[in-house]
């Protein structure tokens, strides 16, 4: 290094002299400072590997620490989810760690009402005693199943464990019923397996990538976007079906600006063309699938001409794209999407996507959907749980949605309001809310607020004072992912690997790791035997050692990679399907038996009246919905959201780009004012906003009143009869000048 | 002894760039760029009318021009040409007069509140120890490539010989070294 530094000084001197000669100006009076290459000095004196929690993808990172302060966070080259690279959020972990608005002390609401945001700072002892005492009282008087846990994020594992031990199966996450639930149900029913998270998609090797409302590039799941770019670089064809000219649509050969709510018609018409023209993978379908004949009949009248009248996509475009999709099979991936709770027939639409993938034979094939593998780590021996994991009280009598594999958050919310639910008629009495801002994550806010006011206890465990925290009785401040150990859980992926989360710096303020909080509560509720270790670091090390892993190497590198096993037939994978028939179920006898349409039907959804627009919402690459919008570092590049409205429509209404507008929904709910983006990039019948803005919490000093909160406008939902999830793209708004 | 002169350059693949701004934020972290400023930025260039649209996304920064107007217009010699043609500002020589800001065709420079003109350095402090610039390292889409144009084996040289490309403001005559692959 010393040598190269001398070298540059020499070269630099020559350059500077040349510059001075060129201008004829002398600059000696500015001193004789040599031309230095200034080192910003952000390299750490210590580099600690861990994995990210700015979203839920779990990318490996390296945190640089200098004089006890995290200076920068970079990708861990050894980690297969980051490959040394990060999305914009990953770099922004410091913005979370050093957020001045962090929860610093345990808080107790001693007076006033839920939502007043008036708390008293108390000791951990007081906060934990209070919480445990209340939980024990509910356990004794109403039964443990009257306590529910809402959880989002990796650290929630300790609280899930606590709740099962305590005796409740009401463990839920809005990320299921309000996000990926219908997709998982649709794929489970068809292939016998969901696609999970990270999705088991071989995007990098796909030759045709069909995105239906899935906006990779704005949705910045790191590895998937890496793979998307790799596929594009190799010349993959992108078909983007989206009412909005998304970033992905900008990369697409075919952008199909579909009328919102009609995606099913397009999917059925594509099947029609692919079957009618004999373009499907006959051998694959005959070998691995059942119900093809029924499917053929089902789509016989779903012609491109018919679909045109629904979707506004011209028949010749439907035919051409169907041929492109089938032409690349099996390396033709129809992306299952992630946020799929749109119109209430979402599990059926996900079934249609799954069936289309089956027709082109992409499941278990290179460039399609791979079958993941993962490492094994022995569990810590603990007593059997008091609760069976499926004793949820999320819908009447627990039978309404037989295919929902996880507990439905909005159902738990309903079950908290007396008289809303069947069963024993006794409502849920307490919520423990870990890392999920239910006020923005759940639809129908009035309903959520009503449920909150009925509770005997609301415990919030969080890093930042999101809106939900303001409604808590007791607030337990967790430290960030950079300050704690978490449990170890292998991530199923295209190669087995194991990564650890370990503390980079000690917790700031009086915040504590989730594991410590859960263990302290367990100790106070006679459940200490479920946490038979002193600290999570020791527990993780013991588990790793029991599994035969090199603990020191894992701590030094952050990750260990296993021997790849076949994930596609091209690598030697033998296909098998965990459905009742052991085949891909194009026609679902399971659904038939449950009284549900066994083949995805087309449902015509209500369209907005003239002067109204369908409210669509999505992502910005820089934020993980409302979780990061207070992050000042990330917000340096994306401070607020805008209302996208078709430019021609805006002009007709005399609305100018950049002016302040208010959205008013069908129920008269008015949004806060927001900036209008009058753009050619969206259809005339919908508006679009990025989700997660418009915070109202006093404690979020940066994010408060910044941008517009779409979720406040989601007063209407369409509940999916198959998955039980809430379709939320069924709200219509008018746009008024603010 | 003749060591071939290096000419550092960067290529930006507009086909793969999704405009996520990972480059912008990693640069801010690496270079401790003050709040409210950035050394690189994203341009989303969308043309056409609904539904016939085309988009180009570019990650932009200082072009480290071979005939740099900022260097020519710097009265103190603070703006200078360093290793590999990289244009740098020596903080201690900079009077903050902003002549370079006026001269730059790319609006790549800003006044650092610490009292000097600041901009992209191609992370020369990293390059000199064999590490790629922070933006290139972080880029999840592998849109950015960096290297020596005079080395035909370098990724930038190979990109420019195998792909169609353009530069911003070729009319400035500054001979920019930030190339956009089409």
Q: Main traits of this protein?
A:
heterodimer; A: 738 residues; alpha/beta; Rossmann fold; Dimethylsulfoxide Reductase, domain 2; Barwin-like endoglucanases; 3 domains; 7-stranded mixed beta sheet; 6-stranded mixed beta sheet; 24 helices; 15% strand; B: 182 residues; alpha+beta; Alpha-Beta Plaits; 4-stranded mixed beta sheet; two-stranded antiparallel ribbon; 6 helices; 10 strands; 20% helix; globular
Task: Describe the protein in words.
- The complex is a heterodimer of chains A (738) and B (182).
- Chain A has three domains: 195 residues, 3-Layer(aba) Sandwich (Rossmann fold); 206 residues, Dimethylsulfoxide Reductase, domain 2 (3-Layer(aba) Sandwich); 125 residues, Barwin-like endoglucanases, CATH 2.40.40.
- In chain A, 30% of the residues lie in helices and 15% in strands.
- Chain A has 24 helices and 26 strands.
- In chain A, helix 6 runs parallel beside helix 14, helix 9 runs antiparallel to helix 12 and helix 12 crosses helix 13.
- The radius of gyration of chain A is 27 Å and the shape is globular.
- The N and C termini of chain A lie far apart (59 Å).
- Chain B has 182 residues and is α+β, with helices and mostly antiparallel strands.
- In chain B, 20% of the residues lie in helices and 26% in strands.
- Chain B contains six helices and ten strands.
- The longest helix of chain B is centred in the first third of the chain and has 10 residues.
- The N and C termini of chain B lie far apart (39 Å).
- Chains A and B meet through helix 1, strand 3, helix 2, helix 7 and helix 8 of A and helix 1, strand 2, strand 3, strand 4 and helix 5 of B.
Summarize the structure.
With 738 residues, chain A is an alpha/beta fold.
């Amino acid at each position: 290094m010393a040598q190269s530094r001398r070298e540059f000084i020499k070269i630099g001197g020559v350059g500077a002299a040349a510059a001075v000669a060129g201008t004829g100006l002398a600059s000696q009076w500015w001193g004789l400072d040599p031309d230095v290459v200034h080192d910003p000095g952000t390299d750490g004196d210590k580099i600690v590997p861990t994995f990210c929690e700015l979203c839920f993808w779990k990318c490996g990172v390296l945190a640089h620490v200098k004089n006890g302060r995290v200076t920068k966070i970079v990708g861990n080259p050894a980690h297969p989810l980051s490959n040394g690279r990060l999305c914009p959020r990953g770099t922004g972990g410091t913005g979370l760690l050093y957020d001045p608005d962090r929860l610093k002390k345990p808080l107790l609401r001693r007076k006033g009402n839920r939502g007043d945001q008036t708390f008293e700072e108390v000791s951990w002892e007081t906060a934990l005693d209070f919480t445990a005492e209340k939980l024990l009282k509910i356990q004794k008087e109403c039964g443990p199943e009257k306590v529910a846990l809402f959880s989002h994020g990796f650290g929630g594992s300790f609280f899930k464990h606590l709740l099962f031990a305590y005796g409740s199966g009401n463990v839920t996450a809005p990320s299921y019923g309000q996000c990926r639930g219908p997709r998982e149900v649709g794929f489970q029913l068809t292939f016998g397996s969901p696609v999970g998270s990270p999705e088991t998609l071989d995007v990098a090797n796909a030759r045709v990538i069909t995105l239906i409302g899935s906006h990779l590039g704005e949705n910045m799941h790191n590895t998937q976007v890496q793979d998307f770019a790799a596929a594009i670089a190799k010349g993959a064809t992108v078909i983007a079906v989206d009412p909005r000219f998304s970033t992905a649509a900008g990369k697409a050969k075919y952008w199909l600006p579909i009328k919102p709510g009609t995606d099913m018609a397009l999917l059925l018409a594509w099947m029609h063309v692919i079957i009618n023209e004999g373009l499907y993978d006959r051998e694959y379908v005959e070998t691995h699938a059942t119900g093809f004949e029924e499917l053929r009949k089902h789509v016989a009248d779903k012609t491109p001409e018919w679909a045109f009248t629904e979707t506004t996509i011209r028949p010749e475009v439907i035919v051409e794209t169907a041929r492109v999709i089938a032409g690349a099979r099996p390396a033709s991936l129809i992306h299952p999407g992630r946020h799929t709770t749109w119109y209430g027939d979402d599990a059926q639409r996900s079934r249609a996507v799954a069936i289309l993938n089956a027709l082109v034979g992409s499941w278990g094939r290179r460039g399609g959907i791979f079958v993941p593998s993962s490492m094994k780590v022995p569990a810590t021996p603990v007593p059997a749980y008091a609760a069976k994991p499926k004793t949820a009280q999320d819908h009447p009598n627990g039978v309404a949605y037989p295919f929902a594999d996880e507990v439905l958050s909005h159902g738990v919310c309903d079950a908290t309001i007396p008289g809303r639910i069947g069963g024993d008629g006794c409502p849920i009495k307490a919520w423990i809310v870990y890392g999920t801002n239910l006020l923005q994550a759940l639809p129908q806010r009035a309903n959520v607020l009503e449920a909150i006011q009925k509770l005997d206890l609301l415990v919030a465990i969080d890093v930042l004072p999101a809106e939900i925290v303001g409604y808590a009785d007791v607030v337990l401040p967790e430290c960030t992912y950079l300050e704690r150990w978490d449990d170890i859980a292998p991530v199923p992926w295209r190669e087995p690997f194991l990564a650890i989360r370990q503390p980079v710096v000690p917790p700031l303020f009086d915040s504590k790791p989730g594991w410590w909080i859960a263990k302290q509560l367990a100790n106070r509720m006679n459940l200490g035997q479920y946490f038979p270790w002193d600290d999570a670091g020791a527990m993780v090390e013991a588990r790793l050692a029991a599994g035969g892993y090199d603990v020191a190497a894992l701590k030094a590198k952050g990750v260990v990679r296993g021997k790849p096993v076949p994930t596609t037939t091209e690598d030697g994978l033998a296909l098998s399907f965990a459905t009742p028939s052991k085949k891909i179920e194009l026609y679902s006898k399971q659904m038939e038996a449950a009284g549900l349409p066994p083949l995805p039907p087309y449902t015509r959804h209500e369209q907005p009246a003239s002067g109204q627009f369908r409210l669509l919402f999505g992502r910005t690459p820089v934020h993980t919905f409302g979780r990061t919008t207070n992050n000042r570092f990330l917000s340096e590049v994306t401070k607020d959201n805008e209302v996208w409205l078709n430019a021609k429509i805006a002009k007709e209404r005399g609305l100018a780009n950049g002016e302040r507008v208010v959205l008013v929904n069908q129920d008269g709910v008015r949004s806060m004012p927001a900036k209008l983006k009058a753009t050619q990039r969206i259809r005339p019948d919908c508006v679009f906003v990025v989700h997660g803005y418009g915070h109202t919490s006093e404690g979020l000093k940066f994010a408060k009143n910044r941008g517009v909160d779409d979720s406040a406008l989601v007063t209407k939902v369409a509940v999916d009869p198959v998955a039980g999830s809430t379709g939320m793209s069924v709200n219509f708004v008018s746009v008024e000048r603010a | 002894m003749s060591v071939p002169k290096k000419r550092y350059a960067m290529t930006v693949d507009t086909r793969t760039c999704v405009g996520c701004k990972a480059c912008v934020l990693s640069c801010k972290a690496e270079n401790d760029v003050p709040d409210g400023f950035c050394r690189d930025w994203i341009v989303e260039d969308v043309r056409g009318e609904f539904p016939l649209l085309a988009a180009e996304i570019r990650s932009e920064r200082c072009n480290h021009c071979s005939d740099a107007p900022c260097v020519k217009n710097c009265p103190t010699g603070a703006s200078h040409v360093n290793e590999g043609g990289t244009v740098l500002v020596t903080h201690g020589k900079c009077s903050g007069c902003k002549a370079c800001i006026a001269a730059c065709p790319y609006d790549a420079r800003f006044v650092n509140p610490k009292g000097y003109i600041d901009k992209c350095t191609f992370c020369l402090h990293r390059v000199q120890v064999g590490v790629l610039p922070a933006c290139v390292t972080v880029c999840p889409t592998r849109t950015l490539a960096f290297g020596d144009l005079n080395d035909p084996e370098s990724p930038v040289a190979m990109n420019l010989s195998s792909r169609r490309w353009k530069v911003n403001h070729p009319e400035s005559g500054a001979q920019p070294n930030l190339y956009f692959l089409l």
